[in-house]
Design goal:
Chain lengths: 301, 310
């Protein structure tokens, strides 16, 4: 990756081999690199500011001049949130339950679906793929009122199962599409060869296919995790009770609860940091796969 | 396509186990029907019904109202304003995002390796930040009393921004919303376009340079036509995604904004359904949003299908 950007200018260094002559092109490249760093600082600043504020006492945040470098760091904001009264733990439990159930359902359903469309050519396959691709584009905003009515009519509001089923339905189409590529990459002959060598179909699947699919399953699982963990729109209508809030809803309530006496931004930033950190960590695992999955058709076409 | 590629082992398999793929699809289809299929069905039915407070509490059954909901909603000036506002907001945001994304992708191509890595890490950080955390931190940055933005503007001599409340008027509310959405969306566009740019053949550029093409000509005559397919897809995805900015707007409205004047389509649906119990009207607007999405998605879906066929 790093070599690509430098290659177009490679002939410059050939023309001026040893001595570092400041040609206009070289100056231009340094200027652009500087610009890239400035842009990077601007783009990373909100995240930096969130984390820095989270470790700063609130009194210090309320000074007339902001401090841009860490001084007098404190853990007290996090201490406060992790106490039982803040509501963080119930929200974390809710978020974890919904996310884990969604991830498990998505992985099983999407894997079976991906197996069907990549290993078999059957009647209705193309219609199914077409439907899946359109469904993954549908916005939650166009459905959430109906989903709210559906859940309330069967008494599944404020329920982990209700909201997880909706999340699974929202995430399964893209994951089927993503896993399809992985399954197609493993030739069925490999499994058949193992069966010729004396393994049963299940054994062949467990020992040959599944390990080869692991990267795809991990990427799909992380994708489902991110979607369920960050989801706000459906959660807002499906989990109206304060005792069943997921973390994004909790952060919203937490902020508006302190609004009357002036928002405690240090605590709010600590809460944001707690929600964002697992996401940022997981995201770095899945990022490459997501970009290529979304635009690979266009790149190849 | 299925008939052409399906021969050899596939055909044998098909004859041996014709039911297998259908069985494997049952769970996925079932959850889709339950989680999305039924709501869409309910929504279509309700959009043709009078479904308000009385029906909500069961004191009157929903009555068939034909196209009344659609007619009422779209002849209403509030709804019309919401649609126009949403479309303008969507196009401005998608346009800005793609222009900045393209600029960043070209920048990444032109700079030293270390500078590119620094920029990529910064973009990944922004991309990875959850919506709720992003809106919250921007509310903090734009805070009237202690926010960094107001401090910076005052420092630059614009003393009028001392204690300025950004969310109070619709125009500056949408300015902040645009900054948040562009900040969140540019990384995907920039990294996708950069991936597309790496596919541009260097020998081709070298040849053009030898033939005497200058930088501007190389950019517009060679690089741009080559990345146009990716550019078209990311622009389309941004337009589709920027039509659905419910969460960002809702969370920003919490900071104290004129709700009616800052609602976009998703917020308008929420307002109609959850606050005013006008489920017929909410369903009609939601159907409009779904249809719009399907129409806009068609070219993107076609490009993905091409990948399946290859």
């Amino acid at each position: 990756m790093t070599t690509v950007a430098t290659r177009p200018h490679a002939h410059v260094s050939q023309a001026a081999p040893r001595r570092r002559v400041l040609t206009p092109r070289r100056i231009g490249k340094w200027a652009l690199s500087l610009l890239a760093v400035v842009v990077a600082v601007c783009w990373a600043f909100p995240v930096y500011w969130m984390v820095l504020s989270a470790f700063t006492p609130n009194a210090l945040l309320r000074s007339t001049t902001p401090r841009f470098l860490p001084t007098r760091g404190t853990l007290s904001n996090f201490h406060y949130l992790l106490q039982s009264g803040s509501g963080f733990w119930p929200a974390l439990r809710m978020s974890l339950s919904v996310t884990l159930l969604t991830v498990v359902l998505v992985l099983v359903f999407a894997f079976l679906g991906a197996l069907a469309i990549s290993r078999w050519r059957f009647k209705g396959r193309k219609s199914f793929i077409l439907a899946v691709l359109f469904i993954q584009m549908l916005p939650a905003e166009g459905l959430f009122i109906a989903q709210y009515k559906m859940l309330s009519s069967v008494g599944l509001l404020n329920n982990v199962i209700g909201v997880s089923v909706i999340y699974t339905a929202a995430v399964v189409p893209f994951t089927i599409w993503m896993l399809r590529g992985f399954v197609a990459g493993i030739p069925a002959e490999l499994e058949e060869a193992a069966m010729v060598d004396g393994l049963s179909r299940t054994q062949a699947f467990m020992r040959i296919t599944l390990p080869l699919l692991a990267p795809g399953l991990v990427a799909s699982g992380v994708y489902a995790f991110l979607q369920a963990w960050n989801e706000f729109t459906v959660a807002l209508v499906a989990l109206p009770s304060q005792t069943s809030q997921t973390l994004p809803l909790w952060l919203r309530t937490f902020m508006s609860a302190s609004a009357s006496r002036g928002i405690d931004w240090a605590q709010v930033m600590a809460a944001s940091t707690l929600i964002a950190i697992p996401v940022i960590v997981f995201f770095l695992f899945v990022q490459g796969r997501m970009t290529s999955g979304l635009v690979s058709g266009a790149v190849k076409g | 396509m299925a008939t052409i590629t399906a021969h050899g082992t596939q055909e044998v398999r098909q004859r041996r186990k014709p039911a297998a793929p259908y069985l494997l699809l049952i769970p996925a289809v079932a959850v889709l029907l339950l989680g999305l299929g039924y709501p869409v069905y309910w929504q279509i039915v309700t959009s043709f019904q009078e479904f308000g407070l009385a029906q909500q509490f069961g004191s009157a059954p929903p009555t068939f109202a034909g196209l009344d909901n659609y007619a009422r909603i779209f002849s209403d000036s509030t709804a019309f304003a919401v649609v126009v506002r949403s479309i303008i907001f969507c196009l401005v945001n998608a346009g800005l995002t793609v222009i900045l994304g393209l600029a960043f992708a070209l920048l990444m191509r032109a700079v030293h390796g270390w500078a590119k890595v620094v920029l990529q890490i910064a973009l990944l950080l922004a991309w990875a930040t959850p919506v709720i955390a992003a809106v919250t931190v921007f509310r903090w940055l734009f805070n009237d009393q202690y926010g960094v933005i107001n401090w910076l503007l005052v420092k630059m001599g614009l003393t009028g921004f001392r204690g300025h409340v950004w969310t109070a008027t619709p125009l500056s509310f949408f300015l902040v919303a645009t900054i948040i959405i562009v900040w969140m969306s540019v990384p995907f566009v920039a990294l996708s376009l950069f991936a597309g740019l790496t596919q541009v053949n260097d020998e081709l550029l070298e040849a053009a340079r030898i033939d005497g093409a200058n930088k501007t000509q190389i950019l517009w005559r060679i690089i741009m036509p080559l990345v146009r397919p990716v550019l078209a897809i990311v622009l389309l995805l941004q337009i589709i995604w920027d039509l659905r900015v419910f969460a960002q707007i809702k969370l920003l409205q919490d900071a104290g904004a004129p709700i009616a004047e800052t609602n976009l389509l998703g917020n308008f649906i929420y307002d109609l359904g959850m606050n005013r119990n006008n489920f017929g009207g909410a369903a009609a607007v939601a159907i409009f949003v779904l249809l719009l999405t399907v129409v806009l998605s068609a070219p993107y879906v076609r490009s993905l299908l091409k990948e399946d066929e290859s």
